[in-house]
Amino acid sequence: MLNVTKVKSYDEAIVALKKGAEIIKVDNVYCRYKGNEQSFHKFVDALASNKTCKMLDLYWNFIGPDGSKEIANALKVNKTLLKLDLALNKIGHQGGIAIGEAFEHNNTLTNLDLVGNGIGDDGAGVISNALHDNKALHTISLSFNGIGPLGAEYIAEALKENSTLLTLNLTQNVIGESGAIAIGKSLETNESLTNLNLRNNNIQDTGAGAIHDAIRGNKMSALVTLDLDDNDIDQTLLNDIDALLRRNR
Description:
Blueprint: E1 4-7, H1 10-18, E2 23-26, H2 37-49, E3 55-57, H3 64-75, E4 83-85, H4 92-102, E5 111-113, H5 120-131, E6 139-141, H6 149-161, E7 167-169, H7 176-187, E8 195-197, H8 205-217, E9 225-227, H9 235-248
Parallel strand pairs: 1-2, 2-3, 3-4, 4-5, 5-6, 6-7, 7-8, 8-9
Helix pairs in contact: 1-2, 2-3, 3-4, 4-5, 5-6, 6-7, 7-8, 8-9
């Protein structure tokens, strides 16, 4: 069991890295990016070459686009970090693009949380491009990011080729019917995704039907959980989808 090292400043985080900490959680109550940019820069520099830290939690640090670009540069070099939590950091589409570009070089990180960052379709597009070839990421959360139908199409194209992603969370975006249809098309051939969350995405019966047909037709589907709650979908159709998922369990 790895021990969590909780720190109240980026300076403390640097010390933790030097001491060989394996999990670092930066306290968002005491430490925010604004006003601590120099310390953050030094911390990220240390992170880039660090060989012990496996999990980093920067939840709600408000690092913004600039901070996320620094993290992205570190990810291009770091070969140790496995899990990164950047939820609620206001990185925007610029930050999403920077993180996505980093994954063209990083094949170590397995778990990425970008919940609530407003990366939009542009950020989702670059991250999706990286997923075409990335063989390390198995869990990614893109919930509450303003991703629309176009972003969903980008993600769907990646799912047609990616064979290692296991869990994808797209809760509370706005992919709509066309986005759901695109995701459904990708599920016709995807054989690795096991958990998909499309809760609260303005999906109706047509989109859900496309997903249903894709799962039914793909005998190699690994999908076992699919959350379609808080959409406008007929209950009978939802029951039919659940029956198909039980087939895969």
